[in-house]
Automatic annotation (TrEMBL):
Residues 301-384 form the PUA domain. This is Glutamate 5-kinase. Pathway: Amino-acid biosynthesis; L-proline biosynthesis; L-glutamate 5-semialdehyde from L-glutamate: step 1/2. It comes from Nitratidesulfovibrio liaohensis. Catalyzes the transfer of a phosphate group to glutamate to form L-glutamate 5-phosphate. Substrate binds at S74, D161, N173. SUPFAM superfamilies: Carbamate kinase-like (SSF53633), PUA domain-like (SSF88697). Pfam families: AA_kinase (PF00696), PUA (PF01472).
Amino acid sequence: MSGRNEARRDQADTAGDWQAERRRALADARCVVVKVGSAVLTNGEGLDLDMVESLAGQLSAVQEGGRRVVLVSSGAVAAGRGVLRSCCEIAGMPHRQAASAIGQSRLMHHYDEAFARRGRISAQVLLTRDDLKSRNRFLNARNTFAALLDWGAIPVVNENDTVAVHDLKFGDNDCLASLLLNIVEADLFVNLTSAGGVFAENPQDNPDACVMDCIDDVHGLDLDGLCGGKTSVGTGGMYSKLLSARRAAQIGVPTLIVPGREPDVLARAFAGEAIGTWVRADARTVSRRKYWLAYQSDPAGTVTVDEGAARALLQGGKSLLPGGVCAVEGGFGSGALVRVAAQDGTVIGVGLSNYAAAELRRIMGHKRHEVAAILGDAHYPEVIHRDNLLLDAVV
């Protein structure tokens, strides 16, 4: 049994303590990332200004307890649609990006005014995945957030849709929020959704499905069976929220998924009311460096390993050697992030490859002395060093 599975078993043994754990985590949280989706922020006409006002009031109250608060807000595209509805048709990525450019300024204007009425300072931060891919830019972003939070400002974060291309996109703001947890060193993630929480069954198939109070092992959920499709105004849906909760759990951050349109939902949650779904963090966590390494970009290819190599990685904590590689997919370069998969296609993890795909195809299946003969002396003993490998990555 792997260390991660042992941790999940240990966690399940203490499942009865989750209520106390939740109360303690909410009371003790010092830095909170709150994500709000388009389905919460918008109505049939575009941006719901009453909802923006309510959210600003709730976040200001959360901050009053001495907490640092970061808001990840969707809604720019939907706000732009509201402006353009009567004159323009929005179809395709360029139109969405243009609608975001129109909507983002309006969204931020309303946040600025709503926070200012409560004596709060808000700050706009627009990011692409490329901003986190570079370690230097990642650290610059961390320093900027630290300064804003030291000043008591509330950063309002969104993806920079206007310039983002496919390879640089987070995919949705749920993903962006989960990566921000690492940047700001948050200890709590709150996701405001249009649903009442996470349902035990897909409510599209079973209208009587109940909301789960607690998820002990978010990694063990069958997301395909549990979750429906994406929402009509956003790009996420519950599937992406649970993927983000999986990432958060890996660095020891619990997630609270609550119905964002219910009155004073944040105040009620922080006051101890049992509302929404509590997603427990992993008992054994990964380092923040490995977390950044695994999620700073999408994998550029796949390295398939044989049964012995898979066992050595999962159970022995070993590095991946050339002899254990049996297939290579993609045209990645040296230093690229790649998936590591078993022969049945199961993804074991992700890691940084010391070899380009072309080199790896030449040496896969070979022993160390044979690699030296093929590539010369300038080679690495490992394809992926264990320090640059994250098992059970959420990809």
